[in-house]
Design brief:
Elements (H helix, E strand, L loop, with lengths): L7 E5 L4 H12 L3 E6 L2 H13 L4 E5 L5 H15 L4 E4 L14 H29 L2 E6 L11 H21 L4 E8 L7 H9 L3 H6 L10 H11 L11 E4 L8 H8 L4
Parallel strand pairs: 1-2, 1-4, 2-3, 4-5, 5-6, 6-7
């Protein structure tokens, strides 16, 4: 499929994991990519991969919580490509696992890195989309924003991001700009938070898989496929939606059901 041929997409937190998979997927479908990440080496590496595959790509180094840096990155993207058709707000921070561990400084960092960052990048991109009369914004949420699954500050930020997505959809839909969210369940990535968990328990993903009706945790490519759909013209009437991509986790807890009914599958 070449649903994104000749489009320009900007992805935050694109240096690894889900963001990297989204960049690859959109590039495969014909888009030019602005790869934004706090880690310049990671952004450059992804950019090099995309260019080696024949795609146009621009590496951007920016802290999404810093407005001047964000604005500079957007100006650089527009100078390079002339427009931004798709924005994917993927950058996030998850530091502390429970309320007791969470200090006020941790709270501020996680809220800023996940929610404020999405606001600042979106705010910087919107004028160009409004001028063009079209655009697709996809925010990466989490099942943590829907139910309590630990990481309270991160979860609160993801819950806020859902309402921010709805506000965007409502305010800008008439101007040709759609906003939607993808909320993943557990996704196996090389992120620092998952590396810490793996160091404590190398079997953590296998243990988590039992909670997922499909029998496994997610892959970055699962999320990238959902983003590619929501950003495409075939989703032209999808606006303000939250597409939960969690293998059925929030549909029901299979292990709990088995214990309640005393039946196994």
């Amino acid at each position: 499929m070449m649903r994104h041929k000749d489009k320009v997409a900007l992805i935050t937190g694109a240096g690894r994991g889900i963001g990297r998979a989204i960049a690859r997927r959109l590039a495969e479908e014909g888009a030019a990519l602005a790869v934004l990440d706090l880690d310049g080496d990671a952004a450059a590496a992804v950019c090099g991969e995309l260019q080696a595959g024949g795609s146009k790509a621009l590496a951007l180094v920016a802290d999404v919580t810093d407005e001047p840096t964000v604005n500079a990155a957007i100006r650089q993207t527009l100078a390079e490509f002339g427009r931004i058709d798709v924005l994917v707000n993927n950058a996030a921070r998850a530091l502390k696992g429970n309320i007791e561990q969470t200090e006020p400084a941790d709270w501020d960092l996680e809220i800023a890195g996940t929610l404020k960052g999405a606001f600042l990048v979106t705010r910087a991109v919107l004028p160009a989309m409004v001028e063009a009369g079209r655009g697709a914004i996809v925010n990466i949420g989490s099942v943590n924003g829907l139910v309590a699954l630990g990481n309270p500050a991160y979860s609160a930020a993801k819950a806020g991001l859902l309402n921010f997505t709805k506000a965007l959809a409502t305010e800008y839909g008439a101007r040709g700009i759609r906003a939607n969210m993808v909320s993943p369940g557990t996704v196996r990535t090389e992120s620092p938070s998952w590396q810490k968990r793996l160091a404590k328990d190398p079997q953590v993903f296998e243990k988590l898989a039992r909670w997922y009706p499909v029998g496994r945790v997610g892959r970055p490519e699962d999320i990238a496929a959902a983003v590619a759909f929501l950003a495409a013209e075939e989703a032209a009437f999808v606006n303000g939606a939250n597409l939960v991509v969690d293998g059925g986790l929030t549909a029901g807890m299979a292990p709990m059901i088995a214990e309640l009914t005393l039946e196994t599958r």
